[in-house]
Amino acid sequence: MTTVRYEHEDGIATITLDRPESLNSMTAEFMDDLRAAVGEVERDPTVRVAVLTGAGRGFCSGADLSGVDQNADPALAGDATASGMDDHFHPAIRALADLQVPTISKINGVAAGGGFGLAMTCDIAIAGRSAFFVSTFGPRLGIVPDLGTTWHLAHRVGKARAKGIAMLGERITADQAKEWGLIWDVVDDEQLDKAVNEVAAQLARSSAMAMTRIRSAMDAATSNTLSEQLDVEREHQRVLIPQNMAEGAAAFLEKREPDFAPRSDS
Question: What is this structure's pTM?
Fold first, then answer.
């Protein structure tokens, strides 16, 4: 991996997008490296939570437009872009979304274009106060928001705000993002490391299986009826109660933190 850094300590994996000279803009190699880093997490059963952040002054500024061929045949450009998305960009997003540990996006600056969708792919998003979000696709490029941006907007902020964000391309501050439900929390920039470390440590003490099944249940709830969702919850409990309930109950009665089994025992 040359465009992404991977570190692991005390059950917490940190994936750092590492093209700071371009505000961590996305290329095919960059997305392949991101997918490889996610694969490192999947292969290591001692990892209990993953943090995604950007090097330098930004989280991710979206696609690297310097690689766009101005002389390309317009008739072929659409198919070429779609192939690149299928081969490089979408596999990385899907791998991150399906990661078998909870994920945190640590948003330390601009999250624009595809970087917006990337930041939203994690389970919990925490931003520094100077961070901001902007969907540049429609008003600046004449295309549809991608990398999951339309899905996340529609599910998080409601149709009116989702359309406004996508069609107008206005800058959304970190405080607005929290108020609108795009992210979990916003903190002063100098407190960002501390805030993310505390949340990561809390998640690392949890059952990764329970956290990822919570993710799955919440995603299913957006399209299920209440009756269907009751069945979803029942089936998750069928698996989790034999795995975790005895330890959780014992820890509660003994007034201590539970010690859930690592993923290797799942």
Answer: 0.94
